[in-house]
Amino acid sequence: MTEIFKRYSLRSYLDKPVEREKIDQLIKAGFQAPTAHNQQAWEVLVVEDRDQLIRLAGVVKWFVCLEKSPVAIVTLVNKNDLAAPEFWQQDMAALSQNVLLEAVSLELGGVWLGVAPQRWRMDKVKDILGLPENIMPFSILSLGYPAKQRTARPRKHENKVFFGQYGNQG
Q1: How far is the first Cα of the chain from the last one, in angstroms, to the nearest whole number?
Q2: Which of 36, 97, 145, 159 is a Cys-bridge partner for 84, taking CB atoms 3.0 to 4.6 Å apart?
Q3: 43: closest CA among 57, 32, 27?
Q4: Looking at the domain assignment, is residue 162 inside a domain?
Q5: Residues 96-117: what's their mean pLDDT?
Q6: Tens of pLDDT along 158-170?
């Protein structure tokens, strides 16, 4: 899988809509993520409405990229479907990462905007989107065609990998 080495946080997009087939593929990829006890308590809300995107951009200053994003996928968990409630955030993180990796394979890019676990952010997003009580937002994935191409920077891992025992750098 080469996409994992090409992915970077993209915040600047072409003024070009993302095709429905690609959005469907992103969601399918997200739903292939592992879940605790196979609970699959996730749902997603696809936001393409400019007014909603602008309102979401105002939640916190680093969400500003949503103002120009052609589409956002809001990842949601349905509290009524939780078989393993203590693991929902891990499940949602796996879904979010799958979507971002699939975006690279579709020549799109995106950025993960964290909503959970900060309750005030979750409440603000719920209000903007009119979500029912049992639905909790986890992340917003701002997606689109890159305005300019760049390459991902390799992440440093020296002195962070241990073998057999912590501190043993084998």
Answers
A1: 26
A2: 36
A3: 27
A4: no
A5: 95
A6: 777 788 878 777 6
